[in-house]
Amino acid sequence: MSWQDDDETMPCPYCRRAIHEDSVRCPHCENYLSEEDAPSRRSWWFLICALLCLLVALGWALQKL
Length: 65
Ligand SMILES: [Zn+2]
Fold this sequence. Notes:
alpha+beta, two-stranded antiparallel sheet, single chain, 2 strands, 2 domains, 37% helix
């Protein structure tokens, strides 16, 4: 284990080889690493939070009736 332990590397989502975190394109398989292609956990959580807020707001609104 040498350069793969570096914190600034991550596995390429396409070929699983270690690439630099800031890479725009994988130097091994030449795939572009756009954020849209990457699994976006943030937007998933945002959706859950939005749904929870909606439920809370609905419950609050129903209590007022
Ligand atoms: Zn790759």
